[in-house]
Amino acid sequence: MHHAFLYSAQLGIMKRLTAILVLLLVLSGLTLAKDADTVIPFRVGEKLTYQIFWGPFVVGRATLEVAGIEPADGHNCYHLVAKAKTSGLIDLLFPVDSTAESWLDCDGLFARRYTENRTEGTHHRTGEAHYDYARKETVITNRLNGHAKHYPLDQPVQDVISSLYVVRTRKLLLDSEETFTINAASTNYTVTVRPDLRKAIWVHALGDTQALRIEPMPTLSIVSANKGRMWFWISDDARRLPLLVNSELKLGNAKLVLFSIGTGNTPSTTTGTPARGANSSTLTPTDKPLASQR
Length: 294
Known about the structure:
Layout: H1 2-26, E1 47-54, E2 57-72, E3 75-86, H2 88-93, E4 96-105, E5 111-120, E6 123-132, E7 137-142, E8 148-152, H3 162-167, E9 178-184, E10 187-193, E11 197-203, E12 207-214, H4 221-225, E13 229-235, E14 242-249, E15 252-262, E16 282-283
Antiparallel strand pairs: 1-2, 1-15, 2-3, 3-4, 4-5, 5-6, 6-7, 7-8, 9-10, 11-12, 12-13, 13-14, 14-15, 15-16
């Protein structure tokens, strides 16, 4: 009986942690084209590694990586890869192993292709979204059974991975409200964000860093259903690094914290093509406690 209750509790916790991880990727969604003077703060070879916490315990790890530049529909695209995996006891009770890949147009900064391969407990799903701008349709394919669905496509869109990188190219101003449109197959979602606080926070990868706090509205339904709130912090500098996601629920506190940064080539200031030069490295200074900010 005790073991059954523990498993049920841990199962619920991992479902919330999975939702929080997805929120970090989804809530930054944009459907804006790139301006001529847009600065590209990321680069090929950049790899951001996060630790996932439930209370004081590390329950998993996630990464975001710019893996290269590859063609999609005849256009050069950033190949973006996001991975998340549970660890320790949680991995025994409710394993989560997820890989999502996105192809972000280098010139227009919009998504052209997205794939997902996810295992949660005993459930597995794998699929692909093809944003076919020539035919003005989105094709969603279930890779398990081969079934495909077609939806109208009348504007450049972002997927859950590309959106996080696109938001890093935008100017986020304190107390300035912006409304973003997030597209998922046949549905558009509207999310409002307004940076409401600027302060220095400490993260393992960078030490003390000036950051902007944002509470997206509306928040994830699983957060509001548990009488919780969620904030995420983005570095207030040219890199616009996602530093921390903090969710306070009635069942406890969950965090996604930047742990290390693998660097690639020097970023471009006006085009989608990164310059060449810098070597890859990992930044992991000091042994202070991890960030604990709202």
